[in-house]
Amino acid sequence: MTNNDERLTMEYTNPVYQGYFADPFVWQHEGVYYAIGTGAAEAEGTLNNIDTPNKSHVFPLLRSFDFANWHFVDHALLLLDPALGNNYWAPEVACSDGQFYLYYSVGHEDKTISCVWLQVIVL
């Protein structure tokens, strides 16, 4: 942008991602946009009840090259020991020294006992 009167414009249609995607966190790395969020099964604590190949993974990871068209890439985290909880929510990512750090909460369905956890992720 060369002056304050110019606005970056892009065409898009909401919602920009159709799937359940709560607590979205978006960041840019090397010209590519990434988003991580809480999926429905993570929020409801029903990961063990779904019959999919990814039932051992949590937190959907999306990618966009234009900030408007988002596509599912993978899940960011392997399921932890169920004794720690079956609800996962509010993931965020920080980058330091070329490493990506995933911060998130995990706990039991009442969410009264939750902890903040940290995991290194690879894009």
Description:
By secondary structure, this protein is mostly beta strands. The protein has one domain. The chain is 4% helix and 47% strand. It has one helix and seven strands; from the N terminus they run ββαβββββ. It has one helix at 40-44, and strands spanning 22-29, 32-38, 57-64, 71-78, 87-96, 99-107, 114-121. The protein has a four-stranded antiparallel beta sheet with strand order 1-2-3-4. A three-stranded antiparallel beta sheet has the order 5-6-7. The longest helix has 5 residues, at 40-44. It is globular and about 50 Å long. The two termini are 29 Å apart.
In short:
The chain is mainly β. The chain is built from 1 helix and 7 strands, in the order E-E-H-E-E-E-E-E.
- Mean pLDDT, nearest integer? 82
What does the radius of gyration come to? 16 Å
Overall spatial form: globular
Q: How is the biggest beta sheet arranged?
A: 4 strands, antiparallel
Q: State the share of residues found in helices, binned by percent.
A: under 10%
Low-confidence stretches: none
Strand arrangement within the widest β-sheet reads 1-2-3-4
Please tally the β strands and state the result.
Answer: 7
Determine the number of helices (DSSP H or I, runs of at least 4 residues).
Answer: 1
Count structural domains: 1
Keywords:
123 residues, mainly beta, 1 helix, 7 strands
Task: Give the secondary structure arrangement, pairings included.
Elements: E1 22-29, E2 32-38, H1 40-44, E3 57-64, E4 71-78, E5 87-96, E6 99-107, E7 114-121
Antiparallel strand pairs: 1-2, 2-3, 3-4, 5-6, 6-7
